[in-house]
Amino acid sequence: MSHLFSEGQLGDLTLSNRIIIAPMCQYSAAEGAPTDWHSVHLGTLAQSGAGLLIIEATSVTPEGRISPWDLGIWSDELGDALQREVEKIRRWSPIKLGIQLGHAGRKASVDAPWKGGKALSGSEGGWETLAPSALAFSENPTPKAMSSEEIAQIKQAFVDGARRAQRAGFDLIELHAAHGYLLHQFLSPLSNQRTDNYGGSLENRMRLVLEIFDEVKAAVSLPVGVRISATDWTEGGWDIDGSIQLARALEGRGCAYIHVSSGGLSPAQQITISPNYQVPFAQQIQQQVAMPAIAVGLITEPEQAEAIIATGQAEFIALARGMLYDPRWPWHAAAKLGDKIAVAPQYQRSEPHHLRGLFSV
Ligand SMILES: Cc1cc2nc3c(=O)[nH]c(=O)nc-3n(C[C@H](O)[C@H](O)[C@H](O)COP(=O)(O)O)c2cc1C
């Protein structure tokens, strides 16, 4: 059996293989609630054979949405709506389900990417954004620097969202501290210029992420992992050294895994994108912590994924675009690597003639 198709653990959650579907915003929710699009999209991904499907960034408050069409979990009604999606998937698939909880901070209140992704004014359905400091991202409007009271409210919103996620039936919670969104904005000295105990030193900039992690962890019995950007790819920004410190601190608090992405905080970022471009960051962190690291970013080939796991660069790999392009990627990977994969009984007859024995049912 390949390393890619061996079982793995995220906290006390067992995954049937090392393939994770990365969270992907769909900009197709209605007032924070999933729509038929989610049933179709998630239903397709749920038949992929991946070990874990992490549902898109889901906002813990209305103003934390990237766009007006993001999923939300700021009320019990929205928790119930997500529960119905979870139940639909569970009726037909054994895939494990995670949810990514987030807040977009100063990158909130923008249009859907396919409509240009520009900041929305009040008359276009936009709203005032919140951030650690009154520093704008790119050409977006300047956000309001959060008061201590607003910081306390956001912490509570993450805790309430996590409780609702557990009640909705998810197997795992991922906190979104990557891609220049609110928690990343607190980590990076480029966006956090606070002078209270949430800004300044590395310890202070990490405080909010660690406090939210602790409170969420105490509120639920599910494994809780964190997604970070390992670097801002900019002079003077958040970097791999800070990421290693953060990963160590999270591990000491019982974090289930660290999901290692990069970038998204500064328009000045200089990234040379190529296959595996973020894997060295996952590897550097994996070498420093015992909890699993998840590598992500332009992992598209089965042999490439297998090599990352086999050489211990990371314990898991995640795919985003590759899984949209080919929602049966794990089937094809199993065929390529000479493994077996379980498929829904409705699809068993599709086993190709030259691959007899691929489907383990
Ligand atoms: C359509 C789309 C939506 C995304 N939404 C999210 C998201 O909600 N949360 C997140 O952390 N990353 C998000 N990402 C980033 C992906 O999870 C992933 O890290 C990135 O696309 C690199 O992986 P890939 O090369 O396999 O696509 C999104 C990416 C795409 C393509």
TrEMBL record:
InterPro entries given in the database record: Aldolase_TIM, OxRdtase_FMN_N, YqjM-like
- What organism does the UniProt record list as the source? Atlantibacter hermannii NBRC 105704
Q: Report the gene name.
A: nemA
Record-given protein name:
N-ethylmaleimide reductase
Q: Which residues belong to any copy of the NADH:flavin oxidoreductase/NADH oxidase N-terminal domain?
A: 4-337
Q: What cofactor does this one take?
A: FMN
Q: Which domain of life is it from?
A: Bacteria
Q: Which Pfam family, an example, fits this chain?
A: Oxidored_FMN
Q: Which keywords does the record carry?
A: Flavoprotein, FMN, NADP, Oxidoreductase
Under the GO molecular function aspect, what terms does this record hold?
Answer: FMN binding; NADP binding; NADPH dehydrogenase activity
Q: Which Gene3D superfamilies match?
A: Aldolase class I (3.20.20.70)
